[in-house]
Amino acid sequence: MLFDVAQLLKEGVGAREGYSLDEAVEALQESGTTRVWGNMTLTCTDKGIWVSGKIEANASGPCSRCLNPIEYPVRFRMEEEYLPTVDLGSGMPLEVPEVKDGAFTIDSHHILDLTEAVRQYFIVNLPMKPLCKEHCAGLCPRCGANLNEGGCDCSAQVDPRWSALLDLLPTGKR
Ligand SMILES: [Zn+2]
Ligand SMILES: [Zn+2]
Prior knowledge:
Blueprint: E1 2-4, H1 6-11, E2 16-28, E3 33-44, E4 49-62, E5 69-84, H2 97-100, E6 104-106, E7 111-113, H3 115-125, H4 160-168
Parallel strand pairs: 5-6
Antiparallel strand pairs: 1-7, 2-3, 3-4, 4-5
The protein binds zinc ion (ZN) (2 copies).
């Protein structure tokens, strides 16, 4: 996810360029992500390059209710400013105070690398409880049957907490 922004920086404040992104990525172990895609606009500001994008990535893992393996998209909007670390004209290092605070930077060859920012946005936007479908019925808490695939016999059985009461009924009415 590398972008050469030398030309944009040269054009100066207000210059902008649209890019589309579609890259295979090494699977993030926790999410099974293999691809990131989307559209972004890079705009030259008085401080650096403003990145504004709509990004999407694939993810996979178990449904949080029924544990079936599922594939789901992770979508997010990204707004981030990247600061240059060298002067475009002279190539001399720039003192950028924000860089010490962990701001994203453009390297000395004017390459803007989106990878780390995308990774951070992705993790923040990963659903805590992904579902195979909105109303996933989940698993039976007693026998573990997947209730999306039809019922189990548990619901037909009498709750053991009531069986003592049933014993009080006359035999014929049980
Ligand atoms: Zn499910
Ligand atoms: Zn059951």
